[in-house]
Write the structure tokens for this entry.
Amino acid sequence: MTQQPTTTTPLSKEMQDCVQACMTCHSVCEETMSSCLQMGGQAQMQIMRAVMDCAEMTRMCADMMMRRSPLSAEMCAMCARACDMCAEACMSMPDDAQMMRCAEACRSCAEMCRSMAAATM
């Protein structure tokens, strides 16, 4: 039986980086939601749903990694998927600087989460 790390064991550098990428992505998604609301009808519901899903998933993923949940690897895989969907939705508005910033944060987070999902935590 593999012993689970205790909460006093520091997070690995890779996990710390992934948590930071998730929190950055969460913040950018929250800012993007605000921007979409200010745009009004121009922001499509599909984009808003993707941004909202990504904001929730990245926050939850970071929380689960920090508390060393045994579900972290699966959550990282789902988070990567949510980030990919959000990046794709944001790319549908290439002339909007905030949407492009969100897409970039999502791509970066998705890459880190995919690495964590593949790693043994």
The chain has a mean pLDDT of 90. The two ends are 15 Å apart (CA to CA). The first helix runs from residue 13 to 39.
